[in-house]
Amino acid sequence: MSKKLKKRIKRVAIGAAVYIVAVLFQTLFGELPWFCHLPLFLAAYVIIGGDVVKNALRNIGRGQVFDENFLMMIATVGAFFVGDYPEAVAVMLFYQVGECFQSYAVGKSRKSITALMDIRPDYANVLRDGDWTEVEPDEVLVGECIMVRPGERIPLDGVIEKGSSSLDTMALTGESAPRDVAEGDEVISGCVNKNGVLEVKVSKPYGESTVARILDLVENASSKKAKAENFITKFAKYYTPVVVICAALLAVLPPVVLGGGWSDWIYRALSFLVISCPCALVISIPLSFFGGLGGASKEGILIKGSNYLETLADTEVVVMDKTGTLTKGNFAVSKVVLSENVGNTGIVAVKPEDISVAAKSDDETMGREERMQAVLLQLAAYAESYSNHPISKSLLAAYGREVDVSLIQDAQEIPGHGVAVKVGNREILAGNEKLLASRDISFEQADEAGTLIYIGEDNRYLGYILIEDEIKKDAEKAIRDLKASGVKKIVMLTGDHEKVAAKVAENLSLTDYYAELLPGDKVSKVEELFTEKPEKGKLAFVGDGINDAPVLARADIGIAMGGLGSDAAIEAADVVIMTDEPSKIARAMKISRKTLAIVKQNIVFAIGIKVLVLLLAAAGMASMWAAVFADVGVAVIAILNAMRALRA
Ligand code: ADP
Ligand code: MG
Question: How far is the CA of 568 from the centre of ligand 1 (A)?
């Protein structure tokens, strides 16, 4: 609880004590003249509600007349004037109790979100001039070496130079199982180092680190308002003046028209004002959205704004990328096949010593064919060395040796086709049929049930590498959950071969799939799906951000998977799923629906009760006591309801 809130509670409690004394005094001594009771009640009033009156006057001075402070001030001051001292103070007392509760609730949910987002590192231990020095994380330069002791948070992204440990990624991904890391592994900032001492070579400045990006994203999320939030802000702006005018009419018109009974009508008008306070809505709606965003991020789902909660809740068509989204994106090399071209001339290795080392260490009797296969894999690795594509990473891993990038003069990535590099005076190509066809290289089309990477050198076709991906364990559940949550259509788009696509689509029972698409084709396919879907339902695209950023941006809502590390994805997407589990998509939708349901409940409940009590008050059937209960009670219930959103 904040100090400010504690002080406020203390003050209200003292005021309440004075109020009780005043009421006792009045009950004991009965009908004494007004100047005997008034000072005590007035004292209680000033202690309890002095700040409300002060705020009201200050806001009037600023030209913002109609707010809840104003409503409370005229209602209570009015009650004093008509002689209802105890009620005047009681209304203020209940209002303050409600306010205290509100700020407690808001503070609490804010805290639970920031606690969960408490991934900001305080310092970094950097090696400078042979000594470890503690500095601010943003003072560390790329390439410097930092030390992370057990129990410390990793301050910057980098690669482990020394040591091994397991990392707690809970705060980032919501995943509870620790991740084992060792020398050469990439680590991301925000994780907690659990056991070993690690020395990490920093690969990104703090501003571009995972932590900084995530914090940025979370901090900006509440500025993107949902429609319901904007509605409430506008509503409150017009609502209060309207209520004040109604109250004034209620106080003046009936006595003038019907004659007499001024104080009764003034009393009704004052009750009317008390009830009309819109705080239940004004506080609980943003709080619900905030809770929804927080609840989602607890599970490793970062949603960039409340507006996306609304879109997610209405999603009916889900379009998914294959590689890295439904499949692991971890291709295993299952075959290396040489072209007949290679027969007599052979292939020249980029670095022959690497291959002969391999031949010696693995097998003395490596035959010519095997040596040529090793050379083909080496060429592929050199070709892929600058790309971030899952295929590249897999081929580099399969090659397993260092690529000497100083030998590469020029590297080109052609999205949806493959890669081309210049090594010495040769050009080496790695990619699909489209790539070779675009260079007019003739080749034999292979008939294999996996992804084929054709390798070319200048105008010559050298052979292909067959790589195979696995469907993610979680993918089946993901599709099942999506269907169960009312998604009508699940479509897979891929740049991969028809055969591979068909197999995945059938295994997962997708509604539909389209294969051999270039990144641009994916956009036009999504356009097509837009025209087919019902007006109201939204279309979501899920990808890994590699080669599909344009589609992520074009869809009603772009969801990026495995956000840890992939920069393009974090930029282009509206929702970032930090783990690589596609089942989190259905989860995100469920959280959104729950949040929206809570918002709707609160709007209907708060407005419903208010209208009812307003009518009763106008008819003289609700006392100011009922009024204040209606106001504070509704606010408290709405806030408690809003806090449910946090517990997804
Ligand atoms: P996906 O829809 O599977 O994510 P992409 O659009 O990323 O597909 O790539 C489509 C196809 O283009 C791949 O299946 C592959 O044949 C080829 N390709 C793309 N990038 C590369 C690369 N870096 N190396 C080799 N082939 C690539
Ligand atoms: Mg892709």
Answer: 16
